[in-house]
Design brief:
heterodimer, A: 37% helix, globular, B: alpha+beta, five-stranded mixed beta sheet
């Protein structure tokens, strides 16, 4: 994976496969502490301790046609950038994946095109709820599709005009955040 | 710099959209629509399926083709990522491999709009390693 936003898309696919109805994606860029933290929490079926012990093993998968490389790749990239990953899960309790990176580490991948990642998730899973928050420079942007759907009053969130609007909304707010 | 969009802007957009009769939830008549599934597992994402999916969704909208674009897990053809499955009502689903934006454009223009087969189809009798172990 060439960017963190692709890792996020990949990890959220696990949430979708696990039957999650809601996924919370939280990115924190703490410049004074020189740390970046990515947290993905879902309300899917979760994992038992036996599966949890193996999820970082390359090629281990609970699905029948998956490579089993998503979490090991994220772990490798986090550790290469001076960070780590933590996975918390329990059967019926959902899963949380936390990845940390040293912010200015030369091997930390760029966040990349997080807008396109979010649009991919929203437009192909319109029935799901996504809560995306991004904190940087003491500012925070939150996109909560539950609120968006409420405001839309029945207009599909996947309709062309809404997708264009959300894309502009995320891009504009992220530009504000990092300037 | 352009004004940053807020929920107030969304409310204004909503009022404009409400007056349009063409707006509807595509899932209501999903069976009569073209369905494009984009494989979106680790192998697919690393090969560019995110860009393929967004390109397909944008272009089908722009060209006024009634279609649903969704994502699915790995189809087992990791050597040919990004892969997509196109289901046209009344026809068998077809899986295409190596679908970058150029190939996606060709699939929309020739297969979806023109009904003409294009290169890059993964044959239905192709057996992946899972099948051979059955």
């Amino acid at each position: 994976m060439k960017e963190i936003s692709l890792h996020i898309l990949d990890i959220v696919q696990n949430s979708i496969q696990a039957g999650a109805k809601q996924v919370i994606i939280s990115i924190t860029e703490d410049i004074p502490e020189n740390m970046m933290r990515i947290e993905i929490t879902d309300n899917g079926k979760g994992m038992n301790s036996e599966i949890l012990a193996k999820v970082n093993d390359p090629f281990f998968t609970s699905g029948n046609k998956k490579t089993g490389l998503g979490l090991p790749l994220l772990k490798q990239h986090a550790e290469a950038a001076g960070g780590a990953i933590i996975i918390e899960s329990g059967e019926g309790k959902g899963t949380t994946v936390i990845a940390t990176f040293v912010h200015d580490h030369p091997d930390r991948q760029p966040i990349g095109d997080i807008t396109t990642t979010m649009m991919s998730l929203i437009r192909s899973n319109p029935e799901m709820d996504f809560i995306y928050s991004h904190s940087a420079n003491r500012k925070k942007f939150v996109l909560d599709t539950r609120h968006i759907k409420q405001e839309l009053e029945g207009i599909p969130i996947g309709s062309k005009e809404v997708i264009v609007f959300l894309r502009d909304m995320i891009t504009g707010n992220l530009n504000e955040l990092i300037t | 710099m352009a004004k940053v969009k807020t929920l107030d802007d969304l409310r204004k957009l909503r009022e404009g959209l409400k007056t349009r009769t063409s707006l509807r939830d595509k899932s209501e008549n999903a069976e009569q629509m073209i369905h494009v599934k984009v494989a979106m597992a680790t192998c697919c994402i690393a090969s560019g399926s995110r860009e393929t999916m967004n390109y397909l969704a944008d272009e089908l909208e722009k060209r006024n083709i009634d279609a649903i674009v969704t994502q699915t897990g790995c189809m087992g053809y990791c050597f040919a990522e990004p892969t997509i499955e196109v289901s046209i009502p009344g026809k068998d689903p077809v899986i295409f491999g190596y679908v970058d934006e150029k190939k996606a454009n060709e699939i929309i223009q020739k297969y979806i709009k023109g009904g003409e087969l294009v290169e890059g189809i993964i044959p239905v009798n192709y057996r992946n390693i899972d099948d051979t172990n059955k």
